[in-house]
Design brief:
- There is one protein chain.
- The protein is α+β, with helices and mostly antiparallel strands.
- Helix content is about 25%, strand content about 30%.
- Strands 9-2-1-13-25-24 form a six-stranded mixed β-sheet.
Length: about 375
């Protein structure tokens, strides 16, 4: 093969698609029965505008560019999506200070936000309680599963393969190419060779990187963050995405809507002690969720919150410091190999732009 991509999440599929449409022979290796069973399917499915990220960072640059690419692609391929718009809500004086900082960050990233007073917010969302808000018209939602199916169809239409039930055990340099050792669901082992290998395994990226021979220098350590979601057994008079001001590790327990208009709340943030994902949702957390949401949506009925699902952000630490950006890692001693670490939000939104960046660096 010209290229092996490890991991069939939305980012791995976007990268494989980019190489396939450029005429490269591509294989995607995925350990699960179907693509996108981890981070790509356990998130808020939000199309982000590029508000929160450090100016000049990969997250900022690729989110803004990626959102435009993704919206155009969804329109072309009829992938379900909707630009509902988002309100970031300040419910106290410190929150208003945070809004001002967010507006400045967004402006530096080329994103325009409208500052709204409480009466202006009330015209959009009468049930919302706040002092002020920022309005982001370019934020929306997307069917991530339909998007991944479209990416996979593009890969296969250009001669590539997406091979599931194959877990990578080892990546070894062999002369001028790489040998990837895999084991399938029956325990059968085999080797696949390629000129270039791209490790986009998400939560498994660190384990893949640690399997590389010769050993990679400075593999990050895991700082995985679990986020739980709760559904709502009823309708709410809400038509936009509602976000509080951000909290450490995440964007706060926010309200998003699925494409059927059904509300869901989350995620919260709990840092895990290991790199093993934990997807259990404790029903008792409904009390904490209700308390957080009622600061900006006081009319919700806590008794209607129901446990839904959990996701894990593949955050990493570099030299002990929590990384605040995507990490695209290469090494002069490992030509033809790239490792992607810390591909959390806004990875879905940035996926096509991220694929372009990887393609240019690896071409």
């Amino acid at each position: 093969m010209d290229v092996i991509v490890i991991g069939a999440g939305v980012v791995g599929l976007a990268i494989a698609r980019r190489f396939a449409i450029a005429g490269q022979s591509v294989m995607v290796l995925e350990q699960h029965p179907t693509p996108g069973q981890e981070t790509s399917s356990r998130n808020s499915e939000v199309l982000h505008a590029g508000i929160y990220y450090r100016p000049g960072s990969l997250k900022a640059r690729l989110c803004v560019r990626g959102r435009e690419q993704l919206v155009a692609y969804c329109q072309q391929r009829q992938v379900p999506h909707r630009l509902l718009g988002k309100l970031i809500l300040a419910t106290d004086e410190p929150g208003e200070t945070t809004l001002a900082k967010l507006q400045a960050t967004a402006a530096a990233n080329g994103v325009s936000l409208e500052d709204l007073s409480q009466p202006q917010v009330a015209k959009l969302e009468p049930e919302v309680a706040c002092r002020r808000a920022l309005w982001s018209p370019n934020t929306g939602i997307i069917d991530s599963h339909a998007l991944m199916l479209a990416f996979q169809a593009d890969i296969e239409a250009h001669g590539g393969d997406v091979v599931c039930h194959h877990r990578v055990e080892r990546v070894m340099k062999q002369g001028d190419h790489w040998q990837v050792s895999v084991v399938d669901s029956d325990g059968e082992r085999s080797q696949i060779e390629a000129t270039r290998v791209i490790n986009a395994a998400g939560l498994g990226a660190l384990a893949v990187a640690r399997s590389v021979a010769p050993a990679l220098p400075d593999v990050p350590s895991a700082a995985y963050a679990k986020g739980c979601y709760f559904g709502y057994s009823g309708q709410l008079p809400v038509s936009h995405l509602l976000y509080p001001t951000p909290e450490p590790g995440g964007l706060g327990i926010h309200l998003t809507l699925d494409l059927n208009g059904q509300p869901r709340f989350g995620p919260d943030v709990t840092f895990l002690d290991s790199d093993e994902p934990d997807y259990e949702v404790d029903p008792a957390r409904a009390i904490e969720f209700a308390r957080a949401v009622q600061t900006y949506l006081p009319g919700i009925d806590p008794g209607k919150l129901v446990p839904s699902y959990a996701g894990v952000r593949p955050k990493v630490r570099l030299s002990g410091t929590l990384a605040d950006d995507f990490v695209l890692s290469t090494s002069p001693a490992h030509p033809g190999l790239m490792n992607l670490f810390g591909i959390e939000s806004p990875g879905l939104t940035a996926s096509m732009a991220l694929a372009d960046d990887v393609f240019e660096q690896m071409r």
